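Support request, please re-run this one:
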Amino acid sequence: MKGGLSSGRPGRALFMSLVGSLVVSLGAPVTAIAQGGPPPQRRNAASMDAERTEMERRFQARLDTIVRERLQLTDEQFTKLRDVASRTESVRRALRRDEYTARYALRRELMAGARASETRVAEILDQMPKLEQRKLDLLETEQRELATFLTAIQRARYFALQDELRRSMQELQRNRMERRDTVPGGDSSSVVRRRGPPPTH
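Re-run finished. Output below.
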């Protein structure tokens, strides 16, 4: 198989699954690629879309290489891994969205102070263990499927890579938010207004 991660929706699903949400470098901090050059200049929308597409293509190609090398996969194993990622990513994305929505709703209730609804807060708190259970169920299902074609060591490396990418993306997102909040002359209130539940599509 020579198509790599950039070919077809299963390949993109593996890309999204491993990113969790753009970064990675063997034996070095995984922020290296994302921070490896100056940000693209803002031009028109078409130019920005083209740059984004090219950046994703290069990242997917790099991720293709890293997954194969880290896990030492055969072509058959890599194809099956893409298939598993394709089936699980939509579930994982929905879980992330549901968890974020619940935490956001809880924050809003608590910020209301004396006006907070005991009933609503109790409903949200009841959701939390269920969300955790859904994540555990998904992990168990994913592990069971991966065990049919990956060794235990390969599975351990796969989940270590996922965790590495996830933590790096979270760090990059935090840094980006901090920079946006501290832009000279910027309106921090506009940043706060933009923060809310993610789109449901």
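The longest helix spans residues 75-111. The mean pLDDT is 74.
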